[in-house]
Amino acid sequence: MSTAQGRGTHAKAILGPELYAKLADTHVLLVGAGGIGCELLKNIVLTGFGKITLLDLDTIDLSNLNRQFLFRKKDVKQSKALVAAQTASAFNPNVKILPIHDNIKEPQYDIPWFQQFDLVLNALDNLDARRHVNRMCMAGNVPLVESGTAGYLGQVQPLLKDKTECFDCIPKPTPKTFPVCTIRSTPSQPIHCIVWSKTYLMGQLFGEDEDATGELDAAEKEGENAQEIAALRKEATAFKIVRDALRSKNSEDAAGIGLPEGGIVSASVSYEILIFFVPGIRR
Ligand SMILES: [Zn+2]
Asked: Which residues participate directly in catalysis (predicted)?
């Protein structure tokens, strides 16, 4: 059997011909093109869904590549939604994927906007956005399939207004940890910066000396993203300057040290150090 003939065979056998026939005209919104989103997008494209809107606000980070398999090294820093749509479109000639590089919480994504979809799939990494999509789907009476991860565990839950409980019916515990990519690259709440400084910056400034040069050299030899490595190297140098300044007996010696692109840092003013290092601010 050729690929074209065989393409829908299994989905048709599972769903039945009637339901399968509806897939081509079913308009799906997939929110999130990360770890869950890449997997889900591949699955719905191969199943035969014909119209997919894919929304994600994030850009691709080198650290995503071990699991977010729709992305390659050359895609680092590009929009997740755009690249994922491009990659997955090739899996099925009958699919149309509309990528949107944006935040689902923007006001233009209002209730009527949600109502254009037959089905919404959540593939998000934060409670705030998951709860927002839940509220919009409940208000607009749009079926939502909610999925998420906690450590190594995954959850999935179908939500339909007045038929099932909603995502918020059972209160969720506030997470005590955050994904490294959120903390490092896309902090959106004050707590992200506090967690980052407590778990990372604190160790860098007051912990044991750690020489990352060897690690970075090795990564460079293996052909890792040169720009990313240059940024890490710059960061390591800056950390070393601040560390030395903090440990200097005479704070006068340490005052007025020039840092790359960060201006002048006085060793006694840790606030300025924070401004320089807190991710997001320095971008
Ligand atoms: Zn509820």
From this structure: 181 (glycyl thioester intermediate)
Q: State the chain's mean pLDDT as an integer.
A: 84
Confidence of residue 5 (pLDDT cuts 50, 70, 90): low
Average pLDDT over residues 55-73: 94
What's the domain range around 188? Answer: 180-277
Find the CATH number of the domain harbouring 82.
Answer: 3.40.50.720
Chosen domain end from 125, 159, 193: 159
Higher pLDDT, 195 or 137: 137
Position 231 scores a pLDDT of 80
Active-site entry in 166, 169, 181, 193: 181
Selection from 44, 43, 39, 48 nearest residue 19 by Cα: 48
Q: Compute the distance from residue 34 Cα to the ligand 1 centre, in Å.
A: 26
Q: Are 29 and 115 in the same domain?
A: yes
Q: Are residues 153 and 17 in the same domain?
A: yes
22 against 210, higher pLDDT: 22
Is the Cα dihedral 237, 238, 241, 246 positive or negative? Answer: negative
For residues 63 and 113, membership in a common domain is answered with yes
Question: What is the CA(35)–ligand 1 centre distance, in A?
Answer: 26
pTM beyond 0.85: the answer is: no
3-state SS class at 270: helix
- Give the lowest-confidence range in 216-220, 237-241, 274-278: 274-278
Give residue for tokens 């030395």: 244
Helix, strand and coil content of the chain, in percent to the nearest 5, comes to: 45, 15, 40
Going from the Cα of 167 to the center of ligand 1, the distance in angstroms, rounded, reads 6
Active site residue 166: no
